[in-house]
Amino acid sequence: MKSNSYATVDQTAFPLINVTFTGEKSTNANFKAYLKDLEDCYFSQQKLAIVFDATQAVIPKFSHQKLQAKWLKQNTTLMKEYCLGTAYVIPSKTIQWVLKMIFLLQKQPVPYEVFSTYKEAQVWTWKQLQNED
Fold it and tell me: 36: domain range?
């Protein structure tokens, strides 16, 4: 893992994908790399669910929040087709507020929930995957 990565995207437990925010500040380069890694999750065109662990997250620059909203808009069809749900682990009320702001810019196109612990998020996400069967 590069020390300046904004987030790591781990597909080793596919169809459950874990995105972990590293605590690094967002830069144009590391934020775009994060969005590309996120888009790569859909390459196989199979059903999936994602846990975003924002326990260590720092607030991204507003320009990056807008970029995230733009990414959601551009990938809405892809997400609706393959993503069964996204769980967010966000113990920080400030980061929860940032997520709400992003969703005001662009609605989240798939079911989602916000949790305070990873375990709760993981249980919910696996249920989303099992409901597809």
Answer: 7-131
